[in-house]
Amino acid sequence: MKARPRRGAAGAEPKAEDAAQPRAEEWAEVPCPHCGEQFEVLVGADEDGSTRFEDCSVCCRTVSLHVTWDDGELLVEASRV
What's the predicted TM-score (pTM) here? Predict the structure, then answer.
């Protein structure tokens, strides 16, 4: 299951020049592989290629998150532990 970056307050897409550079931190909505509900995680640009563990804020089960930044686009893959 892959996450999608959260949109800004107005729901606007990021500007093209901003898309090429990863932000220092970005929020992503992640679908929980256990309960299917979306929850948010804050991901840093320095986490590229890393795997970390978070508890789903809905069902509290542990989720493995693999973080990748690809050409400024944040990808977070969630899987069961």
Answer: 0.72
